[in-house]
Amino acid sequence: MPELAEVEFYRRKWDAAIGQRIRAVELHARKRIFRETNTRELVSRLVGARLISSHTRGKQMLFHFSGDATLGIHLGMSGALRVEPANFEPDKHDHLVLRQRQRALVFRDPRQFGRVRFHHGDVAADWMRRETPEISDRRFDQQFFDSFLQRHRRAPIKAVLLLQSGFSGIGNWMADEILWRAKIRPNRKAGALNAARRSALLRETRFVARESLRVIGREDRQMPKSWLIHERWSASGKCPRDKTKLRRATIGGRTTAWCVRCQR
DNA sequence: CAACCTGTTCGCCA
DNA sequence: ATGGCGAACAGGTT
Length: 264
What we know:
The chain is of the alpha+beta class. It is built from six helices and ten strands. The strands form three sheets. It has a four-stranded antiparallel β-sheet with strand order 1-6-7-5, covered by helices on one side. Strands 2-3-4-8 form a four-stranded antiparallel β-sheet, with helices on one face. A hairpin with a 3-residue loop joins strand 6 and strand 7 (103-108). Helix 1 (4-13) packs parallel to helix 6 (195-216). It is elongated, with a radius of gyration of 20 Å. It starts with a helix and ends in a 6-residue tail after the last strand. The chain binds a DNA duplex through residues 1-3, 6, 32, 59, 74-78, 93, 110-115, 151-152, 154-155, 159, 162, 164, 171-174, 229, 252-255.
């Protein structure tokens, strides 16, 4: 499931563990999820360390532990974080288990498009750093937005919205939602949007990011009925505005749903 | 049984 | 050198 707001939702699941010591770490170093990660160091540094804090940068989660240790988790397409009782027994897709006295912190990812990283030291590793401003950041302004679209002017706007180097945390359903709200056809070239439409697109990008973060924090997380997300999966999906049957096609390498009537 | 999937990275090409 | 695009990664679900 994981895009911006869901990543935030999963990150918070491990908040229950803050301040507590890790007593044991269980993983299988050969799994793809640990590609290019020093798992021996991960285990040796995390055992005995306390979880101090965590945050997200786009879809990347960062968990900070005592002793300058940072665990990075990316959920990929099918990843999830859970908190389980102390006697939890992992199955084959539970790739990482951090055991505390009262609970087990679990990372599960059947498809293993996600990734577990580890870094020790007070100087940040490349994967922890990020030049890209978050959508909510003041630096994500019209100037940044316009120059990013200009740089990718030959690509369809849908594909541009999926580039994490500009739209931190935006994924497939959010991109469709943003374009639908801004009434822009997903296959329109990014460089073909005039100033008024770029302004609308920035506004709707901020709106969708802010609203999904606000709503998805709750356990019964459902976006409002009026949102495109409820219609975009079924073949019979209709535009929430004018009830036109949605069109579906692959744009920017992903399945895209849009309304041919109100998106131009 | 086949098609499909809320993500990223790589190699090829323009 | 930079950007666009299709393929590959893998297993569960429809």
